[in-house]
Amino acid sequence: MKLLITGASGLLGINLALEVMGAHQVIGVDRGKLKSAPFPVTKANFFDRDVFEPALDSNRPDWVVNCAALANLEECEKHPDQAKILNTGVPRELAIACAKRKIKFVHLSTDAVFDGVHEGIYTEEDSPNPQGVYAQTKFDGEQAVREANPQAIIARVNFFGWSLGGRRSLGEFFFTNLSKGKRVDGFTDVIFCPMWVNHLAQTLIAMLEKDLHGLYHVVGAQPMSKYQFGVEVARKFGLEESLIVPQSVERSSLTARRSHNLSLSIHKLSTDLGQVVPDFSTGLDGFYTQLQQGYPQKIRSYQQ
């Protein structure tokens, strides 16, 4: 199958492309950060709504996965207009264009659409209550895609892995700082379900191959605090876990509000796929093995 990935230089975009390019034909659409990727890349300005239909018509993909977003919560608070375009407008335009051409479309959303005050585990039936610009624009993007393209997949995600710049995931944050002997905060009151980005890539392709549609929680199987996540990374990489300071997010210097409990149910996903979602320890092993194999250096060379 031919897969077109928007935002191909992002954390998910680049890892999705590399994960599946052996089995599928991959085309990237990006703002120009990728200079020597091992797959064709079309440069595009995502603030121009007229770029998507020509890209679809010239490449004629079977599947489109939209990884383009403004995902930095602090930047979204500073630049709400840009966040609205990238997180709501772009998904809407892509959903419309793909529906018109009968191209299967996947839109990536976020667990942050929930306010985090729920005591249990959120299911797809629970009502979101976004907090802050990032969460609101991502939720608006979900609604826009659902209205424009009912056959689309909307995947709420939270993932970690190696990125082009080395600063895009929480896994990189802990590894980089602990490797330098720096003390870092680990939030004990923010619970999430991290998934290794390569497992996310594999899962998205399985969802496309199964011809699923609708809203899914596509996250890891194990809820944990961000402090616990940091400790797990430290132990796996042989780093000093005592450098991670247990901290409340409410006492941090972050300006964008963070939800406390983002435990998401993956029952619908595993049931409809007919397979078990990979566990966290397996993903962390993969993340570690990639470092040993020089994977971070390899992907960073693609922007040179």
The CATH homologous superfamily corresponds to: NAD(P)-binding Rossmann-like Domain
Q: Determine the fraction of residues in helical runs and give it as a percent range.
A: 40-55%
Radius of gyration: 18 Å
Q: Are there runs of 5+ residues with pLDDT below 50, and where?
A: none
Overall mean pLDDT score? 94
Q: Give the CATH architecture.
A: 3-Layer(aba) Sandwich
What is the molecular shape?
A: globular
- H/E element order: EHEEHEHHEHEEHEEEHEEHEHHH
DSSP helical segment count:
11
Terminal Cα span: 29 Å
Largest pleated sheet: 7 strands, parallel
Structure class: alpha/beta
State the CATH topology: Rossmann fold
Strand fraction: 15-25%
Walk me through this protein's architecture.
41% of the residues lie in helices and 17% in strands. It has one domain (2-168, 193-223, 265-303): 3-Layer(aba) Sandwich (Rossmann fold), CATH 3.40.50.720. The strands form four sheets. Strands 3-2-1-4-5-6-11 form a seven-stranded parallel beta sheet, with helices on both faces. It has a two-stranded parallel sheet with strand order 7-10. The chain is α/β, with parallel strands linked by helices and 304 residues long. Helix 1 (11-20) links the parallel strand 1 and strand 2 (25-30). It has helices at residues 11-20, 52-59, 73-78, 80-101, 132-148, 170-179, 197-209, 226-237, 267-273, 280-292, 295-300; strands spanning 2-6, 25-30, 41-43, 63-66, 104-110, 153-157, 159-160, 184-187, 191-192, 195-196, 214-218, 224-225, 244-247.
